[in-house]
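Researcher: Here's my situation. A collaborator sent me these components and asked whether they could plausibly form a single complex. I don't have experimental data yet, so a predicted model of the whole assembly would be a useful starting point for our discussion.
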Amino acid sequence: MKSTPVAPEVVLLHGFTGPTEDIVAAVEVISAAASFRHLKTPGGRPMSAAMTNCGALGWVSDARGYRYEPCDPLTGRPWPAMPDVLRSLAQRAAAAAGWPGFDPDACLVNRYVPGARMGAHRDADERDFSQPIVSVTLCAPAVFFWYGARRSGTPLRVRLEPGDVLVWGGAARRGYHGVGPPEGGVRINLTFRKAV
Ligand code: MD3
Ligand code: FE
């Protein structure tokens, strides 16, 4: 398995997923129960990526801010359970990158149609920053932007192909990052976190 250290404590596992049909099918089952929706920023602007979640907790954003919730605000029901095929993928990727014992309780599913993107931000709504984050690209590639400790300056650009898995830990866990629009179709990204 080829892997590239993008920056200290950032590991890109090329093609780590293997064939993605079962993973994409699991996402379809999740989104049938908890629809993709455009969350609003606390300032009231709809995000260009559509989102849903699986696992015990799901990440949400609205006028009250960013947080993790046990239930889907659209339905009032618990988020769909994290399928074993997804949990095991995240655990194997974290272990391969040097973080054994990763036990995610949240999986945010992002869907990017052509033109959709995610601006520079950092993931700061989780309790324990010693736990890594695992990100999986499906269906279409996109360029990922890595800024590091500050939001300013010229980011490092990394092209993420379907099947690629990125693992972030240590100091990189707090770094600023963003992603450009998908190239040639709809991109799905899974982001596994330990929220609590
Ligand atoms: C680096 N998603 O959901 S994945 C996000 O392509 C998010 O959907 C992007 O950023 C996407 O928050 C980028 C790569 C990623 C995810 C989380 C990180 C990189 C990260 C957390 C800390 C540092
Ligand atoms: Fe992020």
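Model: Some features of this prediction you could bring to your collaborator: The two ends are 31 Å apart (CA to CA). The mean pLDDT is 96.
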